[in-house]
Write a structure and sequence with these properties.
The chain contains 9 helices and 9 strands. By secondary structure, it is an alpha/beta fold. It has a domain of 138 residues: Alpha-Beta Complex (Inosine-uridine Nucleoside N-ribohydrolase, Chain A), CATH 3.90.245.10.
């Protein structure tokens, strides 16, 4: 369910968990990654204004290419929520479509690096192939972008890509950016290092598989 306006929250377990974690008296920041719409984050901000602080760092896979924008799937699921978050004081790291589309892998790569590693590896590869066979309207392909993985990558190493601070935009109903210049800056990634992120995933999966095989 998405927000019906910028002032109306959608109560959910996700929003409640964000509130609970953000209100804990930790010195370290709270990182919250979003691989789709920002509904839970926006709702948490509307329900509990005390969490509207840069201590909360939002890593978002979403939004179109800078500086124009346009249709983007994750944003399309809740434009109001994105506008609430952009107008807030939380620190946003945006990984727009120009970033997450660079995370391509081939079937051969997945069969060599993921499939051999136990039930989990087989499950992951089979799910990718099943998804492509079901939803890819362009015909047979042997490719998939692991497009959510940059959110993990920048948490592991924030400089695994180049980025700049940009005044937080607002989003038009068309999903184009409106650059008003009136909101605090957000971090917008311009490049990403796919090798670092992919190889970290492959290596950790292999380590996990070895550890569980030995048990």
């Amino acid at each position: 369910m998405c927000l019906v306006s910028r002032k109306t929250a959608v109560a959910s377990p996700g929003a409640q968990l964000i509130i609970e974690e953000a209100l804990k008296e930790y010195e370290r920041p709270l990182y919250v990654a979003f691989y789709g719409p920002l509904t839970d984050m926006a709702s948490a901000l509307l329900l509990e204004p005390r969490i509207n602080t840069p201590k909360v760092k939002v890593i978002w896979i979403g939004g179109g290419a800078w500086p124009l924008g346009g249709f983007e799937f994750n944003l399309s699921n809740d434009i109001h929520a994105a506008n609430v978050v952009m107008a807030s004081q939380v620190e946003v790291w945006q990984l727009p479509s120009t970033i997450y589309r660079r995370m391509g892998v081939s079937y051969a790569e997945l069969f060599e690096r993921v499939y051999p590693h136990g039930k989990l590896g087989r499950y992951l590869v089979e799910q990718v192939i099943e998804f492509n066979n079901t939803y890819n309207g362009a015909g047979p392909i042997e490719y998939r972008s692991l497009g959510d993985s940059p959110a993990v990558g920048v948490m592991l190493y924030p400089d695994c890509g180049t980025w700049n601070w940009q005044p937080a935009p607002e989003f038009e109903p068309s999903m184009h950016y409106r650059h008003t210049g009136k909101h605090r800056p957000i971090r917008v990634y311009e490049t990403i290092e796919p090798r670092f992120i992919h190889e970290d995933f492959f290596a950790k999966l292999a380590q996990w598989s070895r550890q569980h095989t030995m048990q």
